[in-house]
Amino acid sequence: MTGEELKRWRKIVGYTQQQAGAELDVTRATIQNWERESTAIPMAVELAIRFLVRCWKQRPEFGPVALAYVSTCLEFATPSSHDMATMICQRFSNNQDVFRHLADRMDVVGAVKPIILDEEGVVIWSGSELMKECARFRSQQLQQS
Question: Where does the record place the HTH cro/C1-type domain (predicted)?
Answer without folding.
Answer: 6-42
